[in-house]
Amino acid sequence: MKKIKQALITAGCVSIGSQLYINVFSDDFIIALAVVIFGICLHIFDEINPIKLSILTGICSPFFRCIVLWLNSGDWNESAEAALPDIIFYFCFGVMFYCMYYKNLQKNYTLFWTTLVICDAISNATELTFMNGITYVNPTVLGMLFMIAMVRAVMILMVCLAVDSYKYLLTKEEHELRYKKLMVMASVFDSEVYFMKKGIVEIEDVMKKAFLLYNKMDNDDFPEELHVLTLDIAKDVHEIKKGYIRVIKGLQDNFLSDIKITSLSIRDLVNILETDVEDLIKHKDKQIEFVTKVHEDFIVKEHYILMSVLRNIVVNAIDAIPNEKKGIIKLELFKEKNEDVEFYKFRITDNGSGIRKEDMDIIFAPGYSTKFDETTGDINRGIGLTLVKDLVHEEFKGSIVVESQENAYTKFDVFIPVTCFEGN
User: How many domains does the chain have?
Assistant: First the structure.
């Protein structure tokens, strides 16, 4: 269906283009813009067989021109006699293009241009021979035909180069967007893996306690069913731990390892975050402007972890801004010095609903969340800020400070030592 559409578009455009022409050599022989359009379509719709395309175009274009001439002159026979030789041109052009270029495995612009020149000149010469006889096509006429063919081939090539350049830019932009989304997805997975690894430590602790309880019960006088129950608990916890390990290994081996980038500049990281946040704002249908100001540039090796920290805070900021409010979220990066220690300060501010005074001491506690869906009754699991605090403290040896005023603003300052990045 796609090829049929493309073929019909070609035939239609060429038919219209056939009305822009000049007469040369004789009144019935024309040099039309249609050939330029035909050559461009051959390049753009390169999956269509040129012979089939030339047959369709060779029927439609002369027929259309014949009708136009008939409407102007009123003489159908004269109009048909003037237009029908165009069929020979397109048939000849299509067959030669198929043999010289379409079937050639080593396609390039030089071959494309050369093929166009030869196809154009020889097809015109064949049409002139059909109309006026073989003796009419002398070296002078043939030289003129090649000159015209070269000019038209240059026009076709210039348009095709412009189209290819535009398509390349679109493809590159699409690939960059996919890469950015993949990077964000990787950072989310990476943070989940971190949390799961932390969970494994706690699971091991529960398993040890369950096994110690089993041993204690074995030494003391407890019912047999309690012995069995405590042992089953230890076994079940051990199986949960193995399941966690399998999931972590699967993510790291099959996903994270394929897209692991050794390092990323902070400006690139912020650009990736910016793309993701803008998509998220659009998806949530909120009126929020996300502004970034990066005053420093450095290389980050643990960029997935840093992305998780920044993204979690920004996502919380998006959720804190009501749908009806025109919001603004700012991400700023500064370099500061405090007691001979240099820090990179990431400041994220929003003009959302803020945090209540009584909640300020517990916002980093596991399970704390203000995100409650009144329709479904679902509540967010509340590990975002817990994860942020853990990552900042344990991975970056940094600190995080929060300042907020209810129904006014919230400000997060994340301090990470400069040596944490320069030492990577």
Answer: 3
Q: Closest Cα to residue 50, out of 2, 118, 119?
A: 119
Task: Give me the residue label for tokens 């535009």.
Answer: 166
Q: Last residue of some domain: 228, 251, 274?
A: 251
173-195 pLDDT tens trace:
777 666 666 666 666 666 666 65
Residues 275, 418 within the same domain: yes
pTM score, whole prediction: 0.52
Place of tokens 């409010």: 325
42: which residues sit within 8 A by CB, 6+ positions away? 50, 53, 97
Least Cα distance to 69 among 85, 82, 86 occurs for: 82
In terms of DSSP bridges, do strands 409-417 and 341-350 run parallel, antiparallel, or are they unpaired?
Answer: antiparallel
Distance CA 161, CA 50 (A): 20
The two most distant CA atoms of the chain are separated, in Å, by 121
- Asked whether 37 and 57 are in contact (CB, 8 A), the reply is no
The sign of the dihedral angle between the CA atoms of 247, 249, 252, 253 is negative
Same structural domain, 209 and 80: no
Question: What is the Cα–Cα distance from 47 to 51, expressed in whole angstroms?
Answer: 12
Look up residue 100 and give its two tokens.
Answer: 């010289």
d(CA 226, CA 68): 99
Q: Are the C-beta atoms of 315 and 286 separated by less than 8 Å?
A: no
Question: CA distances (Å), 212 to each of 6, 215, 227, in order?
Answer: 75, 5, 11
What's the CATH code of the domain at 379? 3.30.565.10
pLDDT digits (tens, 9 = 90+) for 81-91: 766 778 888 89
Q: Position 44: which residue type? A: I
Print the domain residue range for 230. 176-251
Q: Give the span between the Cα atoms of 61 and 15, in whole angstroms.
A: 4
122 contacts 101 by C-beta, under 8 angstroms: no
| Residues 220 and 271 reside in one and the same domain | no
